[in-house]
Automatic annotation (TrEMBL):
Family note: Belongs to the actin family. ARP6 subfamily.
Subcellular location: Cytoplasm, Cytoskeleton; Nucleus
CC terms in the record's Gene Ontology section: cytoskeleton; Swr1 complex
Origin superkingdom: Eukaryota
A Pfam match: Actin
Gene Ontology terms, MF aspect: nucleosome binding
Keywords attached to this entry: Cytoplasm, Cytoskeleton, Nucleus
Species name: Helobdella robusta (Californian leech)
CDD domains: ASKHA_NBD_Arp6
Lineage: Eukaryota, Metazoa, Spiralia, Lophotrochozoa, Annelida
Purpose: Actins are highly conserved proteins that are involved in various types of cell motility and are ubiquitously expressed in all eukaryotic cells.
Name of the protein this chain belongs to: Actin-related protein 6
Location, primary (coarse class): cytoplasm
Length: 392
């Protein structure tokens, strides 16, 4: 028997056998291109598209939940097919991640697809934070408390753990993630410079290449107002033309301007867009920022656990890859936490793959069989046995 680990994120799916070092990272969507009318691109087939301008994304997830099963099945069939993993379902069990605070109907659909359509011999389903904290437990012995901050595509979740179990009454969600950052950056650039509302793929790359988290917002804003060389914030970003430039890139300073290049100048957008993670109210989302949410969640936990939770805060998810993210969370949290509490905020060594790696560790552990539901158990008890076993 082999085990396949599927971290089924809203933006990308990370999939691979638990014996492998790294997963395949595949966009969790079906893509149509304006320039290619005769086919669709599933997941990483987008690499075969020569012109990435004006892409139309068909997403399996809406607002953080798996709702479009037709799209998801196409992506899964592609991932598990002979051109990718070439999974033999009769001999391969699965570890699958699901959305946080997931609906029971979605959970039942996942279980039914794997057991009834794919006919897998066993399944384990949980949300990503469980596998992230399991990875931390394996790395750091006697870690009985930790707080997972998972800032992903649709939402940011703050989940405290005690002895391997989530403190569910304290778990909280912030309605801001990478999708909102990219969409807001598209709006700002379209208003100030160039219409890019249809260029989600390109602007998402621009965000990843140029944005950072400010440690002193007002000081950086004053610096961004400067003229000439004293402005260390402003950058020129060369957009791809898909003839000579396949991917956008930052233009090197003091290089000659090529008249054929299309350039977007980014200045205060570089840090004002990620600032939404800390002040969602800037765009009318009346919720706490990430540091406030961390302090609030820890305050909801039993008093004897609070100092240990402050000592073990783990940051994961795509947004945590932004430069300066960890330092800013620590800085803001230090002003909110009680003075006598020591704070330790750690960025996972692989923020995007953290839950996949945790799943591989769990799948290779001696007690893994205590977590799974087998096909025979599912056939006998139905989806009820999954609801009972996967209550993490």
């Amino acid at each position: 028997m082999t085990t396949v680990m599927l971290d089924n994120g809203a933006y990308t799916a990370k999939v691979g056998y638990i014996s492998e070092m790294n997963p395949k990272i595949i966009p969790n969507c079906v893509i149509k291109a304006k320039t290619v009318r005769n086919r669709i691109f599933i997941g990483n087939q987008i690499d075969e598209c020569k012109d990435l301008s004006g892409l139309y994304f068909l997403l399996a997830f809406q607002k953080g939940y798996l709702t479009n099963w037709e799209i998801e099945k196409q992506v899964w069939d592609h991932m598990f097919g002979k051109n990718e993993l070439a999974v033999n379902f009769e001999e391969s069990g699965f570890i699958v991640t699901e959305s946080y605070l997931n609906f029971k109907s979605i959970q039942e659909s996942i279980d039914e697809i794997f057991f009834e359509e794919y006919q897998v011999p066993f399944l384990f389903r949980c949300n990503p934070s469980y596998l992230i904290q399991y990875k931390q437990q394996r790395k750091k012995k006697n870690l009985f408390c930790c707080l997972v901050v998972d800032s992903g595509y649709s939402y940011t979740h703050v989940v405290p753990y005690h002895n391997g179990r989530a403190v569910k009454m304290a778990m909280r969600r912030i309605s801001i993630g990478g999708k909102i950052l990219t969409n807001h950056l598209k709006e700002v650039i379209s208003y100030r410079q160039l219409m890019v509302m249809d260029e989600t793929h390109v602007i998402n790359q621009l965000k990843e290449d140029t944005c950072f988290v400010s440690q002193d917002f007002y000081a950086d804003m004053n610096l961004a107002k400067q003229k000439g060389p004293s402005n260390k914030i402003a950058l020129d970003y060369v957009l791809p033309d898909y003839a000579h430039i396949k991917r956008g890139h930052i233009k090197e300073p003091d290089t000659e301007i090529n008249s054929s290049e299309q350039i977007i100048r980014v200045c205060n957008e570089r840090f004002s867009i990620p600032e939404l993670l800390f002040h969602p109210s800037d765009i009318g989302i009346h919720e706490m920022g990430i540091p406030e949410a961390i302090a609030y969640v820890i305050g909801l936990c039993p008093e004897e656990l609070q100092p240990f939770l402050y000592l073990n805060i783990i940051l994961t998810g795509g947004n945590s890859c932004l430069p300066g993210f960890r330092e800013r969370v620590f800085k803001d949290l230090r002003t909110l936490a009680p003075d006598h509490f020591e704070i330790n905020v750690r960025l996972d060594d692989s923020p995007i793959q953290a839950s996949w790696q945790g799943g591989c560790l769990l799948g290779n552990s001696p007690d893994f069989t205590n977590h799974i539901v087998t096909k025979d158990q599912f056939d006998e008890h139905g989806v009820g046995i999954c609801q009972e076993m996967f209550n993490y």
